[in-house]
Design brief:
- The chain is mainly β and about 500 residues long.
- Helices cover about 5% and strands about 35% of the residues.
- The protein has helices at about 10-20, 405-410, 460; strands spanning about 30-40, 50-55, 60-65, 70, 75-80, 80-90, 95-105, 110-125, 130-135, 140, 145, 145-150, 155-160, 165-170, 185-195, 205-220, 285, 295, 300, 305, 310-315, 320-325, 330-340, 345-350, 350, 360, 365-370, 385-390.
- Strands 3, 4, 5, 6, 7, 8, 9, 10, 11 and 12 form a 10-stranded antiparallel beta sheet that branches.
- The longest helix is centred in the first third of the chain and has 8 residues, at about 10-20.
Length: about 500
């Protein structure tokens, strides 16, 4: 880990000011401190953070915990062993070391996982030189939303669907050029997750830090009376005050984090042959409303496709399903990521199919769920809110969406059925969820997860009315298949979003 990621502090002028301007320079006792914790959860609705495996010097300390779960079912955070160690030594050569680590990390039931997470920092400071680094910090087999992150870089920001973002190897930025330094301060948070919307039972504004380590080192000295202090004045950085061991760490610098913008430029990745299909099975109407003003999110990030309640919604590409669940805006919603890393968002579903499971591998045309009006679509016509997030714009977070209209026009639409009603299942409301209480009891179900929207008649066969024992009428019915003349090609032409 390069040393450029740490900040060295000038303390001489601040300490001299405490002694008084007229008094001769006092001897500096110097100091060193270290702090580490394996997990820290900060909730906006709780006054105190939740800390696990924490230690602060002095004195030196080390230890481990066998495991940690939060809440009790581990739905937000679940780990294997947690370890921590801190040590510091003041004097003419001041040193400090801190480390925190975790094995078998899982956040939000597998949406972020790693075999190991480690944060390590060390510092050495003398009267002539100060140095430090974060060697040994990093991950083994880090996966975010089902996608492996092969080589995380310092302060790398990764968008987490529509509910937050993660910062990897978070640390201070390189200090600007200036006068000689007399001390060293550094910290690292191996993983720092911020929720910008309610997710996994945690409220918006929650922060989860994993693998945090921090060190401070200032050398002791015996200044000669009349000796000059650290220079200061116009054009030079102001001296920083000394920090006490155990005090709150400084807010990490975010100058290297790409800003989230209010609206992205008008861009459309090239349309080439690809394995993409239309997201709605059967007749659907839509218009180009991308960018239109919206009170909840500022502007419309996609297009609305209107149909009938229960109309099947299809995977637009071969890919991985993730972030299946509920939020107040999207209602029942899910995401899918194709093999190139492009992401697609489906919102306002009435229910999910059995394939709608985090981490599920699906094929283009597979049924993921059913059209509805959940979330902030309640009271509006039944529709699917659909978004396209090219891999090249994912650094912009949720705002990395492009106008989906041209893709929808290019993707082949299959519709050999017209729907009267259909049935599916909706997830149970978790503790603290704003999802509505189910309003019906499921008496009968037809599993259509084996059906594929690219095979005419497949859905008709899977959804054919079946009678329960005793000849009871089915809960869901469909009209007889209506052929539209759309050719049954195995794949439709679509965009190559990897070029976006």
């Amino acid at each position: 880990m390069p040393t450029r990621g740490f900040v060295v502090l000038a303390l001489g002028a601040a300490l001299a000011g405490v002694a008084g301007a007229a008094a001769p320079p006092a001897a500096q006792s110097g100091g060193a401190s270290a702090r580490a914790y394996a997990v820290r959860i900060v909730r906006p609705d709780q006054a105190q953070p939740i800390l696990q495996a924490e230690s602060v010097t002095p004195p030196d300390g080390a230890g481990f915990l066998q495991m940690f779960q939060y809440p009790s079912d581990g739905s937000s955070v679940q780990t294997g062993a947690l370890t921590y160690s801190v040590s510091s030594s003041p004097g003419p050569t001041a040193t400090a070391q801190a480390a925190a680590g975790i094995t078998a990390l899982s956040l939000f039931r597998g949406e972020l996982t790693a075999d190991t997470v480690s944060g390590r920092v060390r510092a050495t400071a003398t009267q002539t030189a100060s140095s430090g680094d974060a060697a040994g910090s990093g991950f083994v087999n880090l996966s975010v939303l089902g996608q492996v992150v092969p080589q995380p870089t310092p302060n790398e920001r990764i968008a987490l669907a529509d509910w937050g973002y993660a910062i990897l190897l978070e640390q201070p930025q390189a200090p600007a050029a200036g006068p000689a330094r007399l001390g060293y301060h550094g910290f690292i948070a191996a993983l720092d997750v911020h929720l910008t919307a309610d997710h996994g039972g945690l409220p918006s504004g929650t922060e989860i830090q994993v693998g945090y380590a921090e060190v401070n080192a200032q050398p002791a000295s015996e200044p000669t009376p009349g000796a000059a202090t650290v220079p200061s004045g116009p054009g030079l950085p102001a001296p920083a005050p000394a920090r006490l061991p155990g005090s709150r760490p400084p807010e990490p610098s975010t100058s290297a984090i790409p800003p989230v913008i209010s609206q992205i430029p008008v861009v459309t990745p090239k349309l080439t042959a690809g394995g993409y299909v239309f997201p709605v099975y059967g007749p659907a109407s839509y218009g180009d409303t991308f960018g239109a003003p919206r009170a909840d999110v500022g502007w419309h990030h996609g297009d609305d496709l209107f149909g009938v309640l229960g109309q099947p919604l299809l995977a637009v590409a071969d890919g991985t399903v993730f972030s299946v669940g509920w939020n107040n805006i999207g209602g029942n919603r899910l995401w899918i990521r194709d093999a190139q890393g492009n992401e697609f968002y489906y919102a306002h579903l009435s229910a999910f199919s059995p394939l709608a499971i985090d981490g599920a591998q699906v094929h283009a045309g597979d049924v993921l769920g059913f059209m509805g009006q959940t979330g902030d679509a309640r009271g509006t016509p039944v529709h699917l809110h659909f978004e396209v997030h090219p891999v090249g714009l994912l650094s912009l977070g949720y705002d990395g969406a492009v106008d989906p209209t041209s893709y929808l026009q290019a993707w082949q639409q299959q519709h050999d059925l017209s729907f009267l009603t259909a049935s599916g299942w909706a997830p149970g409301a978790s503790l603290g969820s704003a999802a509505p209480v189910p309003g019906a009891i499921l008496l009968q179900v037809s599993d259509i997860s084996s059906a594929n929207g690219l095979e005419p008649g497949s859905l008709a066969k899977a959804m054919a009315p079946a009678r329960a024992e005793g000849g009871a009428a089915p809960i869901a019915t469909v009209r007889a298949p209506v052929r539209t003349g759309v050719p049954a090609t195995p794949r439709a032409a679509g965009p190559d979003l990897g070029k976006g």
